[in-house]
Amino acid sequence: MIRSVKAGMLLALLLMAGCGVTLSEEQMALHENFERTYEPAQIGNLEALPNVEVIDGVTYVDGILIVNKEISLPPDYAPGLQPEVVAAYQQMFQDGAARGLDFVLVSDFRSYDYQAQLYSNYVARDGQEAADQYSAKPGHSEHQTGLAIDVGSADSATTLKVSFGDTPEFQWMKDVAHEYGFIIRYLEGKEDITGYMYEPWHLRYVGEEAEAIYESGLTLEEYLGID
Ligand SMILES: [Zn+2]
């Protein structure tokens, strides 16, 4: 994907250069060669360019709603937990139960105001620098999208802890969550990209694209080409 984004950008630059600007012979040759060589892939490459849309203050990249440390949601955005997410996690929990696994839903939708309260409590307790590692500023929480959940196991000692990653629930979930439309949003070793510590419990619903994201091993930002 990253490679095709670059090819798409080159194409876009060449096309821009073609708009009313005189090209040198060398550029012309490159342009023609590029078109001749890559013509069949042009549409695909153009589609691979990150398409960023902001609708009523909500940002979508290639149709996927995105919230992170830089991109926020409006305070009044309060969709509640989305029905497709409810169906997906219930099915996953049920399939897990059939394997003797015991999942619990720890948290789901959070409003802007509730996140504001949580964040200020964490800052008061641990200081802002520490709080920013594990908590989002209001408007920046994925939980406000109605597309994110935190899951836990019957072993409540691991709730919202990295040790959840050692539970049988996580060991099964990490390789099947995408089949239900979820990705593990804050991956281990990707803290510098996501801005968050590893959170094995935090799932983000993306639907059908979850499989491709899982297979890529990339964070959502990298996958969408906005890292
Ligand atoms: Zn979470």
From TrEMBL:
Annotated D-alanyl-D-alanine carboxypeptidase-like core domain residues: 81-207
Keywords for the protein's UniProt record, in alphabetical order: Signal
InterPro entries found in the cross-reference section: DD-CPase-like (IPR052179), VanY-like_core_dom (IPR003709), VanY/YodJ_core_dom (IPR058193), Zn_M74/Hedgehog-like (IPR009045)
Signal peptide: 1-24
SUPFAM superfamilies referenced in this protein's UniProt entry, alphabetically: Hedgehog/DD-peptidase (SSF55166)
Gene Ontology MF: a single term: peptidase activity
Gene3D superfamilies attached to this UniProt entry: 3.30.1380.10
Coiled coil (residue ranges): none
Keyword Signal among record annotations: yes
Keyword Flavoprotein: no
One Pfam family in the UniProt entry: VanY
BP GO terms, sorted: proteolysis
Name recorded for this polypeptide: M15 family metallopeptidase
Organism whose genome encodes this protein: Salinicoccus cyprini
High-level lineage: Bacteria, Bacillati, Bacillota, Bacilli, Bacillales
